[in-house]
Amino acid sequence: MSGFALYPAIDMRAGRVVRLRQGDYATETQYADAPLALAQRYAEAGATWLHLVDLDAAREGGYTLAPLLAQIAAHTALRVQTGGGVRSADDVRRILDGGATRVVVGSLAVREPDTVLAWLERFGAERITVALDTRRADGQWQLPTEGWTQRSASGLETLLRRYAAAGLRHFLCTDIARDGMLAGPNLALYRDIATLAPNLRVQASGGIRDIDDIDAARAAGCAGAVLGKALLEGRFDLAQAVRGACAC
Residue 185 has what DSSP assignment? Predict the structure, then answer.
């Protein structure tokens, strides 16, 4: 697939770069990296995108990373997709005006799809990434919300069909069971999504360990991959991964 994009991820909690395991806030791993310096290293390695997450706001609301977003915009050429705690059109506008290329909408996209569909029309499909993080339970792909702490009655397939029909372009999907586990991405999930909504540009998220996993996600129909724990721990070379993505 042409145009495959890599999204190095910086997840922030209480001012620190962190990673969670399977969305559990009690399993936080902290990293010593300063977030701006980390973003600059990713840019120097050839990354063109950054995935920036406000984990505090994901649970409590109220996006808090505007100062960091402004610093990244001022000191790198990275395009940033970012979210956490996005609750209103004013939130979307402030984040875009603050330097983001796309706003990531998660919990609200599950709870209030009509609201998010209106944002797609207002801001345009290139400015919104819908993130439907999913967990397999009772034979279905369910959609937890509020930083994965609350269970929703909505199912992945039904909601995804609705967004795709309304013109959604960018879709991030995390298998929560794979998140932070370095167990490889759920390729079957992404193949199913590609069949269900072939016009979406799907970002694989959760479990990516190495460049082979990136290649496998691309082969499964994804248009991009979010790189988290494995990148933070130096398990593969980002510059090599970028060269491979550009060559695909």
Answer: -
